[in-house]
Structures are given as structure tokens and as C-alpha cells.
Design a protein that fits this description.
The protein has 536 residues and is of the alpha/beta class. It is built from 13 helices and 25 strands.
């Protein structure tokens, strides 16, 4: 078997893996290997922000997983796109920069994860960030991740903010600052009209480092464990089985689906479940693949008159898109810099909840089934997301073949409390979109229902709601007393030495917002932990 040796072997070139590869090799004496199952991110479809709409509903740079049938969604299978490319899901997503609420991180600390309170996470958010608009105690300057307002702004975005203000939702431009609650224009991880993923910000500038080896199209199949410690990764490339040895540590950054899958393929997980698949247990760790949490998303759409500042299958929108191609190619400005999402809000479903538990996002197009169902004409959509679900799901194995997709069961709406909150969000969302500010532009509603018909809305939610692409928690961190904890507060795997999991899977609870920026923060913090532990 072909073998190479490094100080660190990192599995997964997504948001966390790119951060780790960059930060660990800042020291020229430290060597690292980054293994990514997908290919390069250096293509127009990735770098042009509008390219997300081509990747999310297809297998282009995308695993395009499906869930098992969901009883809470009337037996439908959900869709779970995940990036299969350098940058991971951060190379195919809508690029929104959202940290979540400080309450989320303080709750992590209250659960027994020392060092993860918001005051201890904020420095790493700031270290990662270069914010073009906000320069204050809440934001960073000079970091690899560029954050800004997208170049393309539609006046329709302001209609949403006006409608929200009429419902006493206050304007709050800096939702990542002192307070999260309110209505605003979304910031995005873009730079000079291009996507600024973790691959673009952290990895690309450092590919020339002699101490960093990036291997794409590398399918990791097993963590090699010797005498109770991880010593490397077996992976396949070009049909050849190879070995990347780790002198110091193996770092698993495959995401909420990929990380538990690799652990279980390596015999780390519930011993009885692995035995049923013919996998010998190397470490009985029943929490692997459990505690799956995701933001369920309910979309409502309305047709509008043909116009050139939105996306759609219509004469004006089509012509604007063609013009936008030339503008983006020549100046990196215009319509193609839009992440589709323009404005939104964080709100509380009830006065006594500790932090906003609903997120709204207005989109400059008709959205139906993750853009897998297209409609003629132009329109507007609004998404409402349940931010702190009670439902918990699982990730398991189909087989011992690493090529097989994992078994994904989010158990959406299995806890009835989730449906009650999402229903409130749907009613608020529809009332905003059907309020006076939109009267001059709003046409017929797709899948029309009466906002006061709760039975009809519940049925519509069960018929059409699905993921907002934020799965977390399947290798959660927790204290020794938690039997389902997979890693400790320093992200070290319990029961196997020299092995850590560093990605969104370690979140004990999903944050109240998009998960890309928090994942980058986790990796920044982990990089400092690794450096400190190497010196100890």
C-alpha cells in the first residue's frame, strides 16, 4: 500500500478542514495532509455566487443525499445537498453570514462544555472575519473570510423590511452584533463579486506551502487505529488504496453526515449496530450518529410581474440574466453576485423564549422543492426556519462500503412542539408577504392557502417543508457524565487517542441561524487547541 507521513491528516476539505489546513501549516515545521473526496473549487459555477442555483438541486459538486421517508412530512423523503468539492457545502451554499445567537454558545457551556461560552467563541468569529461594513467590538478586520453586502440589491428587499417594521419587528442592520433580533439585509461571504468560501479564503492563498499537501478525489475509507490510537487514514484514489500516516493526530472534518459515517466504518460507534453490519468494534461509542438536528424550512412563494432585478423564466428576467453574465465576467458586479436571499428577520415565537427561534429569508425568485421544480414567470419567496428544534434524528450506515450514502433520518416534526412553532412562523411569514408594502407587486400565491386556516397550513407544511441545509450534532461534544457525548470540550474523541472530530457534527445543539460561520469558528478555535496541545 502506498503511504505518506505527515504531522496531521485532515479528512474532509469543507469549511472546517480548510481552516485547519491553513492554520496548522502557518508553522513551516508542521506538515499536514488534507483529503477531499470531491474536486477543485476553481470553476465559474462555484465562484460566481449565482452558481449555487445550478449546484444545490443537482449532483454538480454535490452529494445530493436523500433522507429515509419522514412520517412527519407525510411520508416524503427529504433532500440533503452536501458539498463534494473543496470548500464543502460552503462552496455550494447561498453564502449568508450568520453566527447564531450568543445564547446558543452560553447554552453549550451550561451543558458542560468548558470554553465554549459566547465570550470565548467571539474572538474566533472575529479572527476569521474581514467585514467590509462593520468595524466594532463584535466584528473582525483582516481575517480570511470576507463578509459584505452583495453587490446586487433589489428594492424589493426593502419591502420586506418595511412590512416587518409595520409588525413591530425593529430594524437591526447588524444581526451578528450586540443583538440578533430584528429585520435586516443579509450579509454574505463574498469578495469582489465572487464567493468567499473557506476554501477561497483560507486554502487557495496557501496552496504553495511546501508543508501542505492537498489531495482531491480521495475517498477516505477507514481510520487506522493501533494500540488505541489513530495513526492514519486509508483512502482510495484512482482505484488505488493508499495510506496517509499521522505522526501527531487524525482530524475528522467530514461534516454531520460524513464524520459519523467514517467513524462507524472504522468500528467507532454503537457496537451492536456495527456488529449487525459485520463491522468489528474498535471503540463502543453509542452517541456516534445520534443527536442529528436540522433546521426545517417552510417556503411560500408568490408570482410577481416580470421585472429585471429578480430571477425567473420570463423575458425581462431572462434578458437581465444574460446581461448579468457579461457584467459579472467583465466587472464582477451585477445580478450574478446575488445569493438570491436578500432580506430577512430573526423573531421570537413567544415573548418568553430566550432568543429568536424563527428565521425568515426573502428570496428573489419562486422557490419550489429546492429549485428542483421550476415555474414559468417571476416571483418572490419567503422561507421560515425553525431554529431550535426539539426533534432529534440519526445517521447510520447502509453498508460497509464508503461509497454508499449514509442512512439519514432527521425525524422532522417527530416532536409536536416543532410543528406548533413552525406554524406560528408560517402565519407570520404569510402575513408579512401579504401586507400593504407588497400590494403593488404581489400576484397569486403558489400553493395558495388562507393564512387563518391552520389545518390547511399544517397540511401544507407536512406536504412541502424540508431542510434548510443545517445538519449538526451527530458527534456531539459533552462532559464525561453524558453517555452520548462523542468528543470532549477539546474535540478529542472519547476512547481513541490522537483523534479529533472538528466540524458542525460536534455541536451539542444547533445554533439559532445558518451553520457555516459557526463551523469556521469551531475550526479556528480547534486549531489553537491543537497548537497548544502540541506544545504541552
Amino acid at each position: 500500500m502506498q503511504a505518506q507521513e505527515f504531522d496531521y491528516v485532515i479528512v474532509g476539505g469543507g469549511s472546517a478542514g480548510c481552516v485547519l489546513a491553513s492554520r496548522l501549516t502557518e508553522d513551516p515545521a508542521v506538515t499536514a495532509c488534507l483529503l477531499e473526496a470531491g474536486g477543485s473549487d476553481q470553476s465559474v459555477i462555484v465562484q460566481a455566487p449565482v452558481g449555487a442555483v445550478a449546484m444545490m438541486p443537482t449532483r454538480l459538486n454535490n452529494y445530493a443525499y436523500e433522507t429515509v421517508p419522514q412520517p412527519g412530512l407525510n411520508g416524503r423523503k427529504g433532500y440533503q445537498p452536501r458539498g463534494k468539492v473543496l470548500g464543502g457545502s460552503g462552496s455550494i451554499n447561498a453564502m449568508l453570514y450568520v453566527r447564531g445567537n450568543r445564547w446558543d454558545y452560553d447554552e453549550w457551556a451550561r451543558l458542560g462544555n468548558k470554553g465554549w461560552a459566547f465570550k470565548e467563541c467571539l474572538p474566533y468569529f472575529k479572527k476569521a472575519e474581514n467585514n467590509e461594513q462593520f468595524d466594532n467590538e463584535w466584528h473582525g478586520q483582516g481575517g480570511p473570510l470576507n463578509v459584505t453586502y452583495p453587490n446586487h440589491q433589489s428594492p424589493l428587499a426593502d419591502l420586506f423590511i418595511e412590512a416587518a417594521e409595520q409588525r413591530q419587528i425593529r430594524r437591526n442592520p447588524d444581526y451578528n452584533g450586540e443583538e440578533q433580533e430584528g429585520t435586516f439585509h443579509y450579509q454574505a461571504t463574498q469578495k469582489d463579486g465572487e464567493r468567499c468560501s473557506a476554501a477561497k479564503g483560507y486554502l487557495t492563498p496557501n496552496l504553495g506551502r511546501p508543508n501542505l499537501k492537498v489531495i482531491t478525489h480521495a475517498l477516505s475509507s477507514r481510520i487506522v487505529i493501533e494500540n488505541g490510537a489513530a495513526s492514519g487514514i486509508e483512502y482510495e484514489r484512482d482505484g488505488v488504496l493508499r495510506l496517509a500516516k499521522a505522526r501527531r493526530e487524525v482530524l475528522v472534518s467530514g461534516g454531520a453526515f460524513g464524520s459519523p459515517q467514517l467513524l462507524m466504518l472504522s468500528g467507532i460507534g454503537d457496537a451492536e449496530e456495527l456488529k449487525a453490519l459485520g463491522i468489528e468494534s474498535t471503540c463502543h461509542l453509542p452517541g456516534v450518529g445520534k443527536n442529528l438536528q436540522d433546521h426545517i424550512d417552510y417556503v411560500q412563494s408568490w408570482r410577481i410581474k416580470d421585472r429585471s432585478d429578480v430571477f425567473g423564466l420570463s423575458p425581462k428576467a431572462g434578458m437581465a440574466f444574460l446581461k448579468g453574465i457579461f457584467e459579472w465576467r467583465s466587472k464582477r458586479t451585477g445580478l450574478l453576485t446575488s445569493p438570491f436571499v436578500c432580506s430577512g428577520a430573526f423573531v421570537k415565537s413567544a415573548p418568553d423564549v430566550p432568543a429568536p427561534d424563527l428565521q425568515l429569508l426573502m428570496v428573489l425568485s419562486i422557490v419550489d422543492d429546492h429549485a428542483r421544480k421550476m415555474h414559468l414567470g417571476t416571483g418572490l419567496s419567503s422561507h421560515v426556519d425553525l431554529l431550535r428544534p426539539y426533534s432529534r434524528g440519526t445517521v447510520g450506515l447502509n453498508s460497509r462500503d464508503p461509497r454508499d450514502a449514509p442512512v439519514i433520518d432527521p425525524k422532522f416534526l417527530s416532536d409536536e412542539r416543532d410543528l406548533a412553532v413552525l406554524l406560528k412562523g408560517g402565519q407570520l411569514q404569510q402575513s408579512l408577504m401579504e401586507s400593504a408594502p407588497f400590494d403593488t407587486v404581489r400576484g397569486k400565491m403558489l400553493y395558495a392557502i388562507d393564512v387563518n386556516d391552520t389545518a390547511a397550513m399544517i397540511e401544507d407544511i407536512r406536504n412541502r417543508a424540508d431542510t434548510q441545509y443545517h445538519p449538526v450534532g451527530t458527534c456531539k461534544m459533552g462532559p464525561d457524565k453524558d453517555p452520548m457525548a462523542v468528543v470532549d470540550a477539546r474535540l478529542r474523541l472519547r476512547g481513541v487517542e490522537r483523534l479529533r472530530v472538528i466540524d458542525a457534527s460536534v455541536m451539542p445543539n444547533v445554533v439559532s441561524g445558518n451553520t457555516n460561520a459557526p463551523t469556521i469558528m469551531i475550526a479556528e478555535k480547534a486549531a489553537d487547541m491543537l497548537k497548544a496541545d502540541a506544545k504541552a
